[in-house]
Amino acid sequence: MDWKTQKVLVAGSGKSGIGATDLLKKVGAEVIIYDGNDKLKEEDVLNKLENKEDVKVILGELEDSVINEIDMMVLSPGIAIDAPFVLRVKEAGVPIWGEIELAYVIGKGKLAAITGTNGKTTTTALVGEIMANYYDKVDVVGNIGNPYTTTAFDSTDDTVTVAEISSFQLETIHTFKPDVSAVLNITPDHLNRHYTMECYTDVKMSIAKNQDSNQPIVLNYEDPILREYAGKLTNRIIWFSSKQKVNPGVYLEGKNIIYADGKKETFVTTTEDTTLVGIHNVENIMAAIAISINMDVPVDIIRETIRKFKAVPHRIEYVETINDVIYYNDSKGTNTDASIKAIEAMSRPTILIAGGYDKKVSFDDWAEAFGDKVKCLVLLGQTAEQIADTVKKHGFTNIIFTESLKEAVDECAKNAKPGDAVLLSPACASWGMFDNYEQRGDMFKEYVRAMCEK
């Protein structure tokens, strides 16, 4: 494509939109940034750009005259594909891409792409470190925090890109074709955006829709949705399983993690030779092994990287021990399945902080997971009442309501006894009370560590 002939509307002025605009400017396209928030200031939007020369900014209403003059729209993942202005652009016959498609088309090199409801960030970070310990030029991008568009222009044929891809980003791919793809699991999430589990599943599985028959997709054999969907796939499937032997794939045999390629079985590592806790992290490690071997990394490099790898921030992250009470930050637990994994990883009686933005999901399975682990539930946010009603139906009544995260931490400190754990694992998104889950987790750590100073 001759980008110098293209007039592109970039929808959204956040991190994704700015990354897309910067990339489009580098390849010579004419760019208009559109944001429906008319309270923004044009100058503030332009000041985010590397090169703001000749970039036009439209805030508030998007006129038909603008739609009629553009060749393409790049849609930020935070904007729904059925938003009214998006439907108008689509009806006008204008191609709609996302940032992932844009970066893929412009970028070069090999690509491993990882999606799933939970475990994406840990697996992507681990695969990124494995690649960096073997290849010379590695970019870790996508939903993990660094937009793919920020690295695509400088990539070469020798670049290896490891991308964490969300369902929102997959809605707007067209030719996106990873050398290795992975879907770690699929459980209910973002149904306020995708409406049905069938739609959510189809979007997640579209990560592999353009792959050739010889290009692998790594799947979790213990996920019933993935096992069923596998029959629809035409590319090569590499399974991983924490419960049974799979071949080809990665499996757990006692404490040993084994890779089978259909011809031979190779010992990779053990569950004791890692700092990551919980069976869900064993599965993340197995997925990373399958991806890395199929990206041609030697097993000894993989083994050594796993041994040294540290947990990513905000995912069952150790914070402090105060009066023999251990505080864990699992702010990345933004849905019920992720929070269940964190609860299962606890080895002490646990005071659980939960609640937040309502994504229209059920909390029944989450409440059932409390078992004898959760001794007290501290709630905050939009979903507090809904969660309380649900856990009461399941026989759990030790509930404390709070108005802020600071109050929640204070209540935990009052109620915790030596030998307990305090776990922030909200089972909900952070929106409404916080900018993102990182801010929520950082504030939790700040409040906890402030107690050490008293």
From TrEMBL:
GO cellular component terms given for this protein: cytoplasm
Keywords: ATP-binding, Cell cycle, Cell division, Cell shape, Cell wall biogenesis/degradation, Cytoplasm, Ligase, Nucleotide-binding, Peptidoglycan synthesis
Pathway: Cell wall biogenesis; peptidoglycan biosynthesis
Catalysed conversion reaction: UDP-N-acetyl-alpha-D-muramoyl-L-alanine + D-glutamate + ATP = UDP-N-acetyl-alpha-D-muramoyl-L-alanyl-D-glutamate + ADP + phosphate + H(+)
GO molecular function: ATP binding; UDP-N-acetylmuramoylalanine-D-glutamate ligase activity
InterPro entries: Mur-like_cat_sf, Mur_ligase_C, Mur_ligase_C_dom_sf, Mur_ligase_cen, MurD
BP-aspect Gene Ontology terms: cell division; cell wall organization; peptidoglycan biosynthetic process; regulation of cell shape
Annotated ATP binding sites: 116-122
Domain Mur ligase C-terminal: 314-428
Family note: Belongs to the MurCDEF family.
Name of this chain's protein: UDP-N-acetylmuramoylalanine--D-glutamate ligase
Job of this protein: Cell wall formation. Catalyzes the addition of glutamate to the nucleotide precursor UDP-N-acetylmuramoyl-L-alanine (UMA).
Origin species: Eubacterium ventriosum
Main location: cytoplasm
EC number of this enzyme: 6.3.2.9
Annotated ranges, domain Mur ligase central: 114-291
NCBIfam families: murD
Subcellular localization: Cytoplasm
